[in-house]
Each structure stands twice: as structure tokens, then as C-alpha cells.
Amino acid sequence: MKAAASVLDRLTLNAPLAVQVLTGFIRDAVETSGTAGVVVGLSGGIDSSFAAALATRALGPEQVHGFLLPYRTSSPESEADARQVALHLRMPFRVIDISPMVDAYFATETDADPGRRGNKMARERMSILFDQAKRLNALVLGTSNKTEILLGYSTVFGDNASSLNPLGDLYKHQIWQLSRHLGLPEKVVSKAPSADLWPGQTDEGELGFSYALADEVLYQLFDLGLTPAEVVEQGYDERVVQRIVRLEQQFRFKRRLMLIARLSGSAINLDQEIPRD
């Protein structure tokens, strides 16, 4: 598709400049907060691996603390890939099995479907990361990319919770590009994206379309300002475009978690947008 090729060309970044900006962002966030580094959950996937790679460049490996947080049904391959990334980046890491915590809860919630169980695992992992960040006087490094955020493909107070997120303005296509630029292991870069929430789960299988297609459609909707009908006119399947639009609209609430009712003229997040620094 000619339109798709031109869209992907426009998504391609000046890799050295992008890395410079993102590492500066991480360095500045840590310095201004007075903390001693960051913690990051390493899943063995490309997003957490790329976030860790940026952080080690920004701060040095010794200030980036990796945590592997498997559940008993997690893929052993995912843990092996996460270990490979940590060793590749020369950063310290630790394994904490979340099975006892998750199983204790679901011992009395026997009707829970895979979606609930997956959300609980994501929140358990983030709870551990924030606790370890407290112990280490560190910030929690976010790993959600722009494609996931716009599609609402995240768990509230789970993987979309963090202290800082260097990936949030990068489409998945750009994550792949920059990860190869930084020399991350090709096995990690090229593997099928998966949150590893249950055996055989893949992101694209759940979404019903590829990340490449989502990036093309979302870029035209949000960066170029096209309407859904105009995107369809470029040759995209109308059903897929409409599904992407529905997901973005349905899950907008996940992008602004603290919804406050206004009673005064100075409501936080409504009347006053207070800079972090």
C-alpha cells in the first residue's frame, strides 16, 4: 500500500537525536527528584528492554535496577530474554516470583476470568516496583509506548503507572527502530509482542490487528489530523479503522487517572496544570 509506505517513512526518527533527547529526559527527571536512579520491570519484551537501555545510557548501569517478576505460568523464554537483556546492559537485576501473592488472592476469587487475572498480575508487579523504588530511593521507569496508550492497551495502576515514561510519545514502529539503533539483542527486538499474562497470549492477537497497522492509522488520526473516513479513503479496512477509533475513545479515561470534581476555581488537573519541576 503506497499510503502505508509513506506513513512509515514519516514515522522514522533521527535515531541519535531521539536517543539524546530521551536520555536527557531520564537524567533530568532523576536529578530534579533527588533520587538515586530508576527501577524497571524487565519482561523480556522490546518496550521494557528499550526503556532499560535508555536508562543505562542516561544514568550508568549501576543506577538502573531491573526486576524480573514472573508468575508460575509465565513463559520461561520471557525470563531468559529478560536475563539476556540485563546482562547485555550490564545492569543489576533481581527475580521476584509473584505467584504466592496472586494465588493467595484468587484462592477466594475462583470465578475470575483471564482478563481479571492478567490485570491483577500487572498491578502486583507495579506494586512491587514502587516498593522496591522506595527501598532504593529510585523512580519507577515506565515502559508503555504511544500505540498502547492511545489504544488503551494497558492496566490502570498496572503497567501504565510509573514515575516517568520515556516511551510514551513513541509509536511501536519507532521503538523497533530505536531498539535496533541501540543494538539490543535481535531475538528480543523481533519477537512477537506479548504481555505474557497467560500462556500463548500475544498483544496483536488480543487487539485483532498488527502494531504496524495501528501505528499507520493512529499517526494519520492524531499527528496528521485526518478523520476516520479520510483514513479509510487511503485504502485501510474500514472495520479496522473503526475498531481503532472505538478503542481510543473507550479508553481515554486511562490517560488521565485522577478525575477530580470541580468545586472551586483552582481544581487540580482542571484549572491548574502544575509543572512537575
Structural topology:
Elements: H1 2-11, H2 15-33, E1 38-41, H3 46-59, E2 64-68, H4 76-89, E3 93-95, H5 99-106, H6 114-136, E4 139-140, H7 146-151, H8 172-181, H9 186-190, H10 203-207, H11 211-223, H12 228-233, H13 238-250
Parallel strand pairs: 1-2, 1-4, 2-3
Helix pairs in contact: 1-11, 2-3, 3-4, 3-8
Structural notes for this entry:
Helix 4 links the parallel strand 2 (64-68) and strand 3 (93-95). The protein has 13 helices and four strands. Strands 3-2-1-4 form a four-stranded parallel β-sheet, with helices on both faces. Helix 3 packs across helix 8 (172-181). The chain is globular. By secondary structure, it is mainly α. The protein has helices at 2-11, 15-33, 46-59, 76-89, 99-106, 114-136, 146-151, 172-181, 186-190, 203-207, 211-223, 228-233, 238-250, and strands spanning 38-41, 64-68, 93-95, 139-140. The protein starts with a helix and ends in a 27-residue tail after the last helix. The protein has a domain at 13-196: Rossmann fold (3-Layer(aba) Sandwich).
Features:
single chain, 277 residues, mainly alpha, Rossmann fold, 4-stranded parallel sheet, 5% strand, globular
If classified by CATH, what would the architecture of the domain at 13-196 be?
Answer: 3-Layer(aba) Sandwich
CATH topology of the domain at 13-196: Rossmann fold
What is the CATH superfamily label of the domain at 13-196?
HUPs
Measured between the Cα atoms of the first and last residue, the distance is 44 Å
The number of distinct β-strands equals 4
Strand content: 5-15%
Helix count from the secondary structure assignment: 13
Label the overall shape: globular
Helix-strand pattern: HHEHEHEHHEHHHHHHH
Biggest beta sheet summary: 4 strands, parallel
